[in-house]
Write a structure and sequence with these properties.
Blueprint lengths: L1 H13 L8 H18 L7 H4 L3 H5 L5 H4 L9 H22 L1 H22 L5 H14 L4 E4 L3 E4 H21 L3 H36 L2 H15 L21 E3 L8 E3 L12
Amino acid sequence: MKKLSNLIDRFCFNHPRFGIPNLTLVLIIGSVAVYILDMLTYSTVGISSLLSFNRALILQGQVWRLVTFVFTTWGQSLFSFLLAMYFLWFLGTTLEREWGTAKFTCYYGLGLLLTILIGMFTGYASTSYLETTLFLAFATLYPDTQLLLFFFIPIKMKYMAWISGAMLALSFLGSLIRLDVGGALLVLVSVLNYLIFFWEDLMYQSGRIRGRAKHSQKSNVIQFKKAAKDFQKREYTHKCAVCGRTDVDFPDLDFRYCSRCAGYHCYCMDHINNHAHITE
């Protein structure tokens, strides 16, 4: 996985002009055009039926379906379609700016290629799972970035990634329950595509989490946390070792620590110069 990721990075570095500039915009324009044409031709034949993935028709020569199926939007309401286009624009354009055209095209292109291969094997293909992994990709790069869900609910991307991961897991399990091998494989190849590009990032973050967990188990860290909790539970900050007066009982009274006593011993101003020094 790591070698394949490094190979892609080297290819993108050596071929910076590779890819389709503004690929996200191309996908959105194509999807919007197909959606509008579907509404106009709904009473006769939907344009999506001429563009969707159909293995039998592809083998008969309608090879354009290998590409045009990415623009089809079967049965989506206007609200869900607009929401999907908003997220595609937000995630896709940000990833393309971060990675560059070459790597973003590789990400979407490799995912699309794997999807097509599964489609030719099972007879069905959809890019919905591939586009869901854009949430995972974005959250891996910008986990604390906040967006407005439904345009008014603030939520961090790392939580959106958990939601997207749960949706992919449910889709995978649902496909297995229905004995839908094609649906399950489409989820797997989409997640595989994400792992190819983010394997090193995930391993690095996993190592940091393990390191923090190991560090928190050290005795000195545990003792420090215990001391901090004990300190917070105290009702006072300073207490005279001779008379027992505290800064809580006498807030205007000054307290000092004796430099000649062994350890840290606090005294009020009446006893800082009038006490037996502690040597042990």
